Amino acid sequence: MISVSRFVSIAEQVSQSVAPQWPLSQWIAVNPFWQYRNKPVEDVAAHWRYSAGSRLLMSPEFYWQKWQKNEIDKQHVTDKMVEQLQQRVSIITPIPQWQNLSRLVDKYQQRSRKMRWNEEVVLQISQTCGLFMQFPKRFQEEGSDSSLYSHWLAISRADRGIETLMDEADLNELFAELPDDPHELIKVCQASFLTDASDYALQCYCQALISDLWGWAAAFSYQDARQDSQWVFDLLCIRLAWEYLLWHLAERTNTSVHEQLKSSFNEQLEHCLGWVGYAQQYNELLWKWQGAYERSQVTRLKFTSAEDAKPSKAPEIQAVFCIDVRSERYRRALGKAGQALSINTQTKGFAGFFGVPLALKTRSGSTPHVPGLLQPSYYIQAPEQKQSVTSLLANLFNTPVSMFSGVEALGLSKLKSLLTGVPGKIATADAHAKATVCNDDGEVSTDALVAICEQALAGMQFQAFGQHVVLVGHGSHHSNNAQRAGLNCGACGGQTGALSARVLTRLLNDTTIREHLRDRGFDIPAKTRFYSALHETVTDRIVWLSDAVPGEVKRTFNAASESLASNSSEPFKARKKRSSHWAELRPEWGLADNNTLFFGRSERLASADTSGSNFLHDYYSNNDLNGALLSQLFSAPGLVANWINWQYYCSVTDSKQLGSGNKLLHNRVANDIGVFEGNGGDLRQGIAWQSVHDGKDFVHRPMRLQVIVEATEDIIQKALAGASDFNQLFQHDWINLYRLDERGELCPVTK
Amino acid sequence: MLLTEWLTFSGIRPVLLVLVGVLAFVVTNYARTNFRLDPRRRAFITKLIGCLAAVLVLIVSNNIIVFFAAWMAISLQLHSLLMFYPERDRAVLAAHKKFILARCSESFLGTGLLLMYLHTGSLQLDTILQSVTATNAAPELIQHIAGLCLVMAALIKCAQLPLHGWLIQVVEAPTPVSALLHAGIINLGGFLLLTTTPIWSNSAPAVWLLCIVSAASCCFAALIMATRISIKVRLAWSTCAQMGLMLLEIGLGYYDLALLHLIAHSVYKAHAFLSVSEVAIIKQPQARSLWRVGLIFIAFQAIVAAACWWWLNDPKWLPSALLAMALTTIWMNLYQPLLRLGVSVLTIATYLVLGALAQQIIEPQQLTSVWLEPFIALLFNAFAFTYWLVHHTPSHSLSQRWFITLNAGLYLDEWLTRFVLWLWPSHPIEYYQRRSKKEGLS
């Protein structure tokens, strides 16, 4: 028997390995297995497949179909692989999965005419967590580590409903006997049904338990990272407490069931290592096919040789876009529009917050406009909002005492908006156009502002400044979507890029700041002006944020927007409708089908395809011989792209567990911490079904991120050495890394 | 002549037809976009339109057999909408619960209509009502029973406590279904009672049953609503409470207010459900002094009741209490004196104007029992104070205890769920087995 403290540390480690999920208003994509980057993806996949049933690979049928449609090329596949896959498709072999006690009880106890335990346990915990987050003043004890566990215990002890519902009279007695302290609980659990458990088995068990409430665990992981709490651990203990309850309930009321529980649970504890091995063996073939699929797809990208992509003369218009895959199509269109109008136009790719680590502060809280891994160091104070009629009405209708006469008198005021629908919206940060940048000590000094600009310019890697430089953020104009933030700019924390673009534009047009910048080696010509704009990604229109934008700039952008509208297969009217109709579930495809991250000169990417699968980030290796800049790029946009890519990947491979389900059933929870699907169950995480599937097929190709770098092997290796997180992802096959050579060929990077 | 045997457009029907028309237009339009690219779009829209057609038939039918058939058809169509995702076990459980209760409601309705047919010998609704109105004598036993049956049918249809669970649990269905149900179909209980007033309103047991059950449902559902954590479930509890109020107003003879309530609530609730995904944080009530809120409320209530007495010779206990509650909330949430006054006056004025308009369509009726309304107004006072105690003073020990009990829904639904599961076991595993068997055979 291993020691209790060992069990506690395993439980803590599993809890700490849950990736966070941001609340709806700041929802950004996250790699759910981020904390497992230090382990090979094959191991993690097999482990989670056994312990929680999670699928990190597509089904054999998927690869077979792709093979038959020639989407997987022959040179990446051996005859043996084909033969084995064919066998796999024809004979379905079930892969064993860990069964928690709640599932085993459901299996052995005759409950066909009763509520089943497993789903009811999940629902009960989920509802309790909801109360905890929705009514913090009532339920969250200040300064208490285990407040979530004790909250759950208090609610459960007071509740008489579940006893009635499950038809188990002894349940409340058992609740009363539960230890008050989570560590104590772990101790009694170990003493009662985990006496023979090995380290490995406990880890499987903890993963299986947390995966029942993965969504809440992710939401709490977000909270834990921002305060001194251990709510994920508490959640795990709550789930464990239910196992303990069911074990003892069976012991008291039904000895034959208890015997069955005992024998099959012990068998699991003994054999789990072997079963994980089996899952790994089973997956081996599929990983080969996955690799072949990815290689076949990535080699469809065509690159020009280095000589063909020589930079042209100094551009007139330079436009800096977010690296978001949706920018790709616009950048191509803009380049072509420039050619057609013979206005020399250059586009650049950079993180959409333009390197300005900002937050927007209001009285009720602050909204960061930075990537999830960063903390904002500056903020902008939003002006006090006036009380709006809508919020007063909402308050009147939502308050139990006032909703009766309130609805009778004023309910009809919703008639107009019922007939026309809720209009679409996009945040353009108009109110903050002139706001000052502050930090905790108040308004920041010119020096700090110059430092912000310097950092941004260094990242954007301007070789020369054109006459007009446009900073183009992006955002999505649509209506009535709980996951709106997921379609906005991830680098801006799920907000639009408007605020960041506005602030940086203002700073870079400031003459004093420019003077200081000149001292630091950034000589911006006097005739160069910066402008800010927002790329509206549903209709591909441009919303201008700056006044007095020169006619030629507007003309070029308009031409680009129009060419995108006319080249698209659907009429512009339909797009317009998607961006404004309140019932629309698929206003746009967002980042679906993202799969490649390219660091280099975008001119070298020659594929005619404008579907928007590529994150394009400017990188000039000749200025970066020690790889320091590339290392930074690996550690910032590289990780962001990995998060986005894995969020989509998992939402496709396992849409039930790692996707957020059917949008038609979405139900916002606990002050918008997330959504339920329907009436309850766990909080959902990941991307919704409608966002990755068009009713016939997936619109996202399940590919791990293919990172392509235009640099020498030497620079890449140096950069990898300096970017440990990224290097781990690479070493353990969470991403694939290629070097783009002079000829335009992709060469694998040595591990 | 023949047409009037089958169809009727009397009373509140024209207004309701307009309302149903608007809802039908909005909801089908919404669903068409909602299900864009969904392979089952056509199936969904067909079911939706089937349901709406049955509602239209019900509203205009003058023949009690057609009326009954339409009533049943609505519920069966709704069932197929609630079962749109048969692989979701919670959806299936809720649909089964609803199915069983709908059959109960139909049995009551059928019995009530049958008794009236036996009593009057006519199958035409308007003839039945005329002959009941014509005999001014005290109601006979058969009329009492028929009245009770109709009231029971309406109470079950409107998901009143303790048979409310399905209404909360069917948020497992797609959003347009919820909008249709909560803004449209659920009102049919009210429609039934409003169009058959002569049958039940003279029967004291029927009126008392109606008022007591609906008042209790209204107060408890509203209290429970405020303890819930997800937006759709909150809205569902709110519907349960609002239906309680509508039925209560009908029971107390405020037919005009009930009609106004039916229409205004439908519009508001349809909008609320259809815009359910717009991220908006629900403001939590701040901690406040119970005495201060209570005093403001009592003062408002006294003023409103006195004004009613002055002008109308009747203190209008219930509407006064409810209006005072709304005014209290406005007062507590607005801080500028002018704005407070303006919004309050606007609310009162709209209320009066809309109420007067509703009175043009349907006349209120004087209640026979003098004590029923003050008693219910008192109940609502208790309700308001309970709410303020629970939500404005979260640290109070009673507050915490009541909160947990309310959050559990007063443990009313658990028995019914157990019964339904026992009667009609439903688990998704069986569904999958059935489906794979079917596919295997074909």
Automatic annotation (TrEMBL), chain A:
Residues in a coiled coil are none
Look up the domain of life of the source: Bacteria
* Amino acids binding Zn(2+): C322, D324, H474, C489
Q: Which GO terms describe its cellular component?
A: plasma membrane
| InterPro entries, per database record | DabA
Any idea where this protein resides?
Cell membrane
UniProtKB keywords: Cell membrane, Membrane, Metal-binding, Transport, Zinc
Annotated GO molecular function terms are: zinc ion binding
- Membrane topology, as annotated: Peripheral membrane protein
Q: Which cofactor does it need?
A: Zn(2+)
Q: What does this protein do, in the record's words?
A: Part of an energy-coupled inorganic carbon pump.
On subunit structure and binding partners, the annotation says: Forms a complex with DabB.
Family, per entry: Belongs to the inorganic carbon transporter (TC 9.A.2) DabA family.
The protein's matches in PANTHER family, at most eight in alphabetical order, are given as: INORGANIC CARBON TRANSPORTER SUBUNIT DABA-RELATED, UPF0753 PROTEIN AQ_863
User: What is the protein name stated in its UniProt record?
Assistant: Probable inorganic carbon transporter subunit DabA
